[in-house]
Amino acid sequence: MLVNKAVFYIDKLKQKVDWKLLAFLLLFLNVKIGIKIPVIILFTLLQFNFKFGFSFKNSRLPLFYPLVIAIAVINWFIGKNYTQLNYNIMLSAGIGFWILCILAIHQVKLAVEQNQPVVIHQTILVFFIINALFSAGNLAAIFLETHAINPYTYQGQLQKYFLNTGDYIRGVTFDTSTTNAMLNAFGVIYFLTRKNAPMLFVCMATLLFTGSNFINIVIVLVFLMLFIFKTDRYQKSLIVVCLVFLGVFMAKISPQNNQYTTNAISILLHKDPSPPTPPVWANVPVEARPDSVLSFDEHRQKQAIIFRDSVYKAAHPKRTEIIKPQDKPYETEGGRIAIKGPDINSAPYQSSTQTPPEQKQLVQFIDAHKTALPVAGQEIVVPRLDRPGKLIGFLQTTNFLRHHINKIITGAGMGNFSSKLAFRATGLGFAGGYPHKFTYIGHDFMVNHLDLYLNYFSKRAGFHSLTNSPFSVYDQLLAEYGIIGLLVFAVYYLGFFARHYKALTYGLPLLLLMLAAFFIEYWFEQLSVIVFFELLLLLNIKETKSPKLLAHEL
After folding, report:
1. DSSP E strand stretches across 364-433
2. Is the whole model's pTM more than 0.85, yes or no?
3. Helix (H), strand (E) at residue 338
4. Which H or E run contains 329?
5. Measured between alpha carbons, how far is 87 from 78 in angstroms, rounded to an integer?
6. CB–CB of 449/471 below 8 Å?
7. Which residues are bridge partners to 430 per DSSP?
8. Which of 45, 146, 196, 246 lies at a 20 to 30 A Cα distance from 5?
9. Residue 181 contacts residue 529 (beta carbons within 8 Å)
10. Measured between alpha carbons, how far is 138 from 171 in angstroms, rounded to an integer?
């Protein structure tokens, strides 16, 4: 009897979930390109269907993808880069990435076309459950390693975790915590719209544990928009609970993020977050200052303090201090039993002064190319605190195009200025592996975005921030594909989804979230977040075209 019931529920679950789509998401979203390529080849062979349906009118898939490849090929001819073997190899790799984007969206489009919306919804639900379990596993591993109740305030192990704890919450993709944060931000909006409170709170908690301040700020703005325009009373209450989650996390679990976020906002507003230089005597106790620098009131205060201290010393003669072992209880002057905690000012509780291996490689590269790096190559350069590196990167791009009018239309060419491909092709390893024999570094990239990146990320960890990284889809499109590239992106990618704005439910806030996220990463080349974003949007579009199916599901 029990066996029959188990078989029944398994069969029912099989019908409710598209296991092929789930397997594709779990495998293709993995950070390793060595996994992505075999997975997309395998699933393409399993569904041998190359009817992409590209068209200037009612295109089945965003026409942006083939058009951006066409722009890259045109630039290749115009720039006469076909004479350079290493550039040809890099261009082929770049085109390969765009083809992977096409094959990936084709797979999710097929899944949406072949399944009822309820099946895709259940598949997405299972994916987020698995991702939450992996994220919880990441956090559990940190607990086991540190033996700390709250690793977000744990300063041991040379502050390996502390403010960086969220960086280790990578989820099922094993990618950066920012990727995990983006996926869970999608989940927050998706489950909020569908009024699935348990999964909303799971995704919100996972998002907070990743410690992505930028995504937190954006999700709060999206919450405010939804609260005002597109939610009922129940959804508004869910938003309030999520904001309480955020407040508790910032105040109790990771209070250091308050200062970090404040500094980041100050930088974005072109304000130096460094505290103003205090006067000479500002940090000296008033009783230790000479009378010549004291005001009348301060002089009276000094006399009162000296008198009070003399009375206290007379009544409490100094006793011989007995140093107690740190790990044993001792009795305080008030009679309480206490255990002296570790000295957080000692070396094990401070940031490591050793240069990590990946940073050494950057420093070595700078030393070998000092003459070619206008900023990072200088002996002593402290990055500016009043202007984020990302803004400097955009200014570099606009200045470059202003001085190279011939590249405004179609850009500098793929991999020549601002892209994950350009960083990968350096062979430095900070954007994925690349064969050293075929490394390529364009001059314009070297003296602009690479120089900028090295100037920040070869320094101490405090400068390693999203606000200082030149990574950005907008910058990539403008710099390497020109005005045409940006227009193609706006019309044939954003427009492909936005034309359904009147009917979209969770799709519209997801689109707004993605518009903000395009500022912080080369998402198309990452081949993860974009794929999931496209799945959700394509599903939402299908729902608007199938009102009966949607009503039946709800």
Report:
1. none
2. no
3. strand 337-339
4. strand 329-331
5. 14
6. no
7. 432
8. 196
9. no
10. 7
Alpha-carbon gap, residue 432 to 500, rounded angstroms: 36
Tell me, what amino acid is at 211? Answer: G
CA distance 543 to 534: 14
pLDDT per residue, tens digit, the chain (554 aa), is 555 555 554 565 667 899 999 999 999 999 999 999 999 999 999 988 889 999 998 899 999 999 999 999 999 998 888 889 999 999 999 999 999 999 999 999 999 999 999 999 999 999 999 999 999 999 999 999 888 888 888 877 767 787 788 889 999 999 999 999 999 999 999 999 999 999 999 999 999 999 888 999 999 999 999 999 888 999 999 999 999 999 999 888 888 776 666 665 555 555 555 544 445 455 567 667 666 666 666 766 777 777 677 767 777 676 544 444 445 565 555 556 655 556 555 555 555 556 666 677 888 888 888 888 888 877 666 666 667 889 999 999 999 999 999 999 999 999 999 999 999 999 888 767 888 899 999 999 999 999 999 988 887 766 778 888 999 999 999 999 999 999 999 999 999 999 998 889 999 999 999 999 999 999 999 999 999 999 999 999 998 875 544 444 43
Alpha helices in 369-467 (DSSP H): 389-403, 420-424, 443-445, 451-457
Q: Degrees (nearest 5) of the Cα angle 476, 481, 487?
A: 95
Task: Return the exposure string of 226-235: e unless at least 16 CB atoms fall within 10 Å of the residue's CB, then b.
Answer: beeeebeeeb
Q: What is the dihedral of CA 243, 249, 254, 256, to 10 degrees?
A: 30
d(CA 214, CA 261): 8
Backbone CA torsion sign across 235, 236, 239, 240: negative
185, 223 in Cβ contact below 8 A?
Answer: no
Using alpha carbons, select from 124, 27, 134 the residue that is nearest to residue 535: 124
**Which H or E run includes 379?**
none
Rounded Cα gap, residues 266 and 173, in angstroms: 32
Name residues whose C-beta falls within 8 Å of residue 39's C-beta, 6 or more positions apart in sequence.
Answer: 24, 27, 28, 30
| 218 close to 198: Cβ distance less than 8 angstroms | no
Which two tokens mark 125? 């639900």
Cα 531 to the center of its chain, rounded Å: 16
CA 549 – CA 554 distance, rounded (Å): 9
Residue 261 CB-density burial (10 A; 0-12 exposed, 13-18 middle, 19+ buried): middle
Check if the beta carbon of residue 31 is closer than 8 Å to that of residue 175: yes
Strands 329-331 and 337-339: antiparallel
Q: 412 burial class (0-12, 13-18, 19+ CB within 10 angstroms)? A: buried
Q: How far is CA 551 from the centre of its chain?
A: 36
